[in-house]
Amino acid sequence: MRDLVPAIVRFYLDGFRNMRLGRLLWTIILFKLIIFFGVIKPFFMPDYLESRFADNTAAKAAYVLERLTEHMPPAPAPDATRPAAPP
Prior knowledge:
The model has no long low-confidence stretch (mean pLDDT 82). The chain has one domain (4-69). It starts with a helix and ends in an 18-residue tail after the last helix. 64% of the residues lie in helices and 0% in strands. By secondary structure, it is mainly α. The protein has four helices and no strands. It is extended.
């Protein structure tokens, strides 16, 4: 069991060392993630909750609950012809 973890680590390191196309693809993936989270996210996805409700977590929760339930259709009325389901 002690030798299992180093063997797994060695297996993956050798695999990554011997990759050619995979290394290029991983580089492209990391580049795209850096662009998305480092450049695009701060400009196009502002943190509305933090800007509106600084440190008030109860107000944040109430706002989110209100926005989630705002357009929900009302619950159907119980049908009088069918018996109620057991609890």
